[in-house]
Amino acid sequence: MLSPTHETELTRAMRERARAIAGAGSLVRAIESGVLPRLVETTLAEALVLGLLKQGVSKYFAIFGHGSTELGNVLRVYEEEGITRTLNCRNEVEMAHAATALRWQYGELSAVVTSIGPGALQAFAGSLAAASNGVGVYHIYGDETTYGEGYNMQQVPKEEQGLFGRMTALLGQSYVLHTPEGLRDALRRGALCVNHPYRAGPFYLLLPLNTQPARVTVNLAALPERPQLPKLAPAGEEELKRAADLIAGASCVAIKAGGGVRHHDIAVRRLAEAAGAAVVLSPGSTGVLPDAHPQNMNVGGSKGSISGNYAMREAELLVVIGSRAVCQADCSGIGYKKARAVININGDLADALHYNNTVALTGDIGVVCERLAGYVNALRGGEGKAAWLAACAGKKAEWRAFKEQRFECPPLDDAVWRRPVLTQPAAIKVVADFAKETGAAKLFDAGDVQANGFQIVEDDRSGDTYTESGASYMGFAVSGLLAGGHAAEPRYTIAFTGDGSFMMNPQVLIDAVEHGVRGTIVLFDNRRMAAITGLQQAQYNAEFRTNDGVAVDYVQLAGAVKGVLALHGGHDAPALRRALDKAYAHDGLAVVHVPVYAGADERAGLGAWGQWNVGNWCEDVQAEWVRQDL
Ligand SMILES: Cc1ncc(C[n+]2csc(CCOP(=O)(O)OP(=O)(O)O)c2C)c(N)n1
Ligand SMILES: [Mg+2]
């Protein structure tokens, strides 16, 4: 290994540039003040790091390999000079999730770095969560050499070029840095992709092994910055007036608030109150209206709730805001049985036109909702909705009473645990309440944990719950905790996970300790992949291969990692509460293991209130879908 005093000429020059940036305070200031020349001759790998820095990207999650040693060397030097920071990880799926969570929860853009081949494919798989939830992240993968001197180990073994570039382009947008000078174009495309105002997603930079060290003259002034875009809204009044007329003329109006409404709390509330609309939430939009707000009907959809699904079913006018009509959120397209017309507020043209008979109000959700609320108020369009809102309130009371009963269910005798244990809803409620009291953020993993979770949470604002319902990627929540290791201002976060999901990404135990994460993993252990057992039972009356007979002592497993506080969550609510207190007091990662009931007792679930186009339900759902006009 070379010590800094024996660095090559190239590395020394690189270090000097990094120092100049540190001295100037930022790359842009270093260019403007002339500390750095506009034209720099360097390697593509360093030029890429500089280009990303210009877009505000200084945080990396990495698992290096022979496909990324050159880039790794740049990141080493830049970190030594205090410019970038790289968290080394243990699994690429995990680090892709962590990067997604860093952007989603904290708004911080970062880059994932892998080697060529398996590492890249794993990170690529993980990036489905970013793609599904509209979260911008850079992914940088090592790629096959451009000379074609022979197969590179770990490339796709076919006589074809650019296969990783093609694969990744299917899921997001990609650029193969075949020609170092293409960097400027690549980063311009990337900047828009990862910062897109309403359809952001992963951008993949494929970095061939031989172009990483290739020399390039890069114009630092010409490298694109993060795009600044104005908010868009309909230019004229016509559509807004038509929409306001529709609202004024309808007696039963429902707003379906999709994930896009996040952080538009005030505007959505203003429109809902102006329109006298019942607001049905999606898993990703809980909190946009305070839980106790009389117009908040809680979630609607295939799982849904008594009140949310009532409002969806009975509304004659549907106002969709920031939703891409996810099958499960709209009961596979048959959730709005009485709706005759739709007002659709979305930046994306295709999403805004998903339903027929639509007034499309394309643009920024905050701007459009505020403007529409103004027109509705002018018409007194919210009047005449009292009977509708009273009926909805009745259903919400019913849903609350139903939930209360479930929460009060005593520990049930369980066949595997051979003793009474908490039901999953009762246990999740204890932890969700604890999160609310302590101001902790909540991350939810897939499965029953996720579905029960979004039926249970009682958020009062956007940003308290992150439930990866776009892909429902098992392992997302626990991996997402790692975002706290990079966040400028980490927030105490609790990951709600199942035994199935946790074992998808247990690496986080080590990585969270290594990178100083404070947070808790609560592991709801029903010793099976219960969400799937439940579906199998509901559809075919028989379970198949959704559990195993291997007992795992998760307290011991987690406790084997130095720095992790591993606790048993007990068998009743007070014991769980005590464990959470202890976990919270620990200055690091804690794991609370909670055995939960699995079995036929219906008090162990919160029900499914909508329909879904899967398994042997397809025929019925599709027959309805064909007949409805919307
Ligand atoms: C990576 C991945 N594999 C498979 C699935 C399909 N799937 C969804 S939920 C689930 C079971 C989840 O089990 P667990 O985490 O134990 O939660 P539980 O339903 O038991 O509460 C499976 C297999 C998925 N969503 N993600
Ligand atoms: Mg489970």
Task: Give the percentage of residues in beta strands.
Answer: 15-25%
Which geometry do the CA atoms define? Answer: globular
The biggest beta sheet reads: 6 strands, parallel
Helix content: 25-40%
The neighbouring-strand order within the major sheet is 3-2-4-5-7-6
Oligomer: single chain
Q: Which structural class do the helices and strands define?
A: alpha/beta
Q: Can you tell me the residue ranges where pLDDT is under 50 for at least 5 consecutive residues? A: none
Helical segment tally?
A: 24
What is the strand tally?
22
The span between the termini is 67 Å
Bound molecules: thiamine diphosphate, magnesium ion
Rg, Å, rounded: 26 Å
What does this structure look like?
This protein has 630 residues and is α/β, with parallel strands linked by helices. Helices cover 39% and strands 17% of the residues. The radius of gyration is 26 Å and the shape is globular. It has 24 helices and 22 strands. The strands form 5 sheets. It has a 6-stranded parallel β-sheet with strand order 3-2-4-5-7-6, sandwiched between helices. Helix 9 links the parallel strand 6 and strand 7 (202-208).
Summarize it.
The chain is of the alpha/beta class and 630 residues long.
